[in-house]
């Protein structure tokens, strides 16, 4: 099944927002907390995002974060699994993803991408 959800997010991506006005430390903390809450929810639903980067995070007018672009996302049965997914964005890739001999995508790779 394919589900498409649409919502107007007028501030654009986190990347665009940062380019327009560099963040203060309090903003970084605010956004990071929300991203972690989003990842916690995804991981509790056994979903790995697989390509988390600033261009895949939208900012609403009220400063709320929306994780988007689930094109490389996969469902996993447990936290000990790792997956071989399609290529992601190399600048945000965890070492175990960049070197397939070390494992692949998993829940920890999403946290690496956030860092």
TrEMBL record:
InterPro entries: Kinase-like_dom_sf, MAP_kinase_kinase_kinase, Prot_kinase_dom. Residues 1-115 form the Protein kinase domain. SUPFAM superfamilies: Protein kinase-like (PK-like) (SSF56112). Signal peptide: none annotated. Keywords: ATP-binding, Kinase, Nucleotide-binding, Transferase. Belongs to the protein kinase superfamily. STE Ser/Thr protein kinase family. MAP kinase kinase kinase subfamily. PANTHER family: MAP KINASE KINASE KINASE SSK2-RELATED-RELATED, PROTEIN KINASE DOMAIN-CONTAINING PROTEIN. This is Protein kinase domain-containing protein. It comes from Salix suchowensis.
């Amino acid at each position: 099944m394919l589900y498409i959800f649409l919502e107007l997010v007028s501030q654009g991506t986190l990347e665009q927002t940062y380019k327009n006005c560099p963040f203060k430390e309090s903003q970084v903390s605010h956004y990071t907390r929300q991203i972690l809450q989003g990842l916690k929810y995804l991981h509790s639903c056994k979903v790995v995002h697989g390509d988390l980067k600033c261009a895949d995070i939208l900012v609403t007018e009220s400063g709320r974060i929306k994780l988007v672009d689930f094109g490389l996302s996969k469902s996993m049965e447990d936290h000990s699994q790792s997956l071989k997914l399609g290529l992601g964005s190399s600048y945000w890739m965890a070492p175990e993803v960049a070197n397939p001999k070390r494992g692949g995508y998993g829940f920890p790779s999403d946290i690496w991408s956030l860092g």
